[in-house]
Design goal:
By secondary structure, this protein is of the alpha+beta class. It has helices at residues 156-161, 181-187, 189-196, 200-204, 213-225, 235-244, 248-259, 267-276, 280-291, 295-298, 302-305, 310-323, and strands at 3-13, 18-30, 37-44, 47-58, 62-69, 74-84, 87-92, 97-99, 105-111, 116-120, 123-137, 167-170, 176-179, 206-208, 329-333, 336-340.
Amino acid sequence: MSEVKCIKYDIIKEDIDTTLHKLLWDIQFDLISVPRELRSFARHNDVPVFQMKVEIFEEDDIIVNISYMYPCERYIKSILSMAERNEYYVISTSGYNMIQANEWHHLMTLKSDHIQVETTGMGQYLLMNFEFKFKVINNIRFKYESPNLKTRYNFQTFFITSLFSDVVLISNDGKEFKVHKIMLASQSDVFCAHISHDTCEAITNTIKSPFDAEVLEAVLSYIYGDKVVGIHKTTEQILIAADFYHIDGLKSLCEQELCQRINIENAVTLLELADAHNAVKLKNDALNFIKDNRADMIIKTTAWAELKSVHIVKLLFEAVKCGKECNVIYYECEFGTFFVA
């Protein structure tokens, strides 16, 4: 039997104009029988609100398209979390998008390596469990444009299927991605430079990347669908790649993720990362964290002991001096012993 079922639905009012909808969905799909499309309502207090549609396509691999419908015209930001094969994935849009009432809107496309298929005596079943979070702006007069989204269309299916691809992007570890010049050039002036001049890449339609496949796939996922798969796993490397390719929207997403993780052990490391890649928000948040009376603990960390940048040491001293005007604090690192009065 195939079914899509919302097993939990909570609505949390965040402020006067914004509500957070949290929905937990179970999806079971019989891969042998029809139909190849399922729909289901999510009800809150017996009132149908969100509707979910799941479509299955089988070519060389299994491909799953998931779409949603909302009964009102709203600005919506979506965040999807899923556990799969002992790993945890988070897919998030970078900003709010206007959706039309009672029309289907693409949420995500999954391919076989993110899908669990269970074989039983009764046949083959596709099993998925997702948590969807939708932030909804209820005041339609509120105008919010995703600052980095250069297209309102979602081309993720073209990335998954490689349909009409015209260039091959090769990762540092040898994986090939069949992609589209127009998508790369529209989101990154670095990619545009690779393919718009009389270069080897333009002639051979092949671009070699210095980044591993996992990081490159996250970059491409953002370019094609304004979503990032698994951003929590390799956030630092994705930020470096976003800075390298001049993809500001993706870089901003990585900064937001890392700012939530700042702690005593990693504050210095994240400050170094932010300074090296001009991540202004992350740099400011890390400095503020250090300045907030935590310096005496941070100087005991491994990151402090291994610090090699004089520039970062100066930044830290300035931050601590602003935070503790009346104390004399001594620090030891690779450069010797320093004090801030």
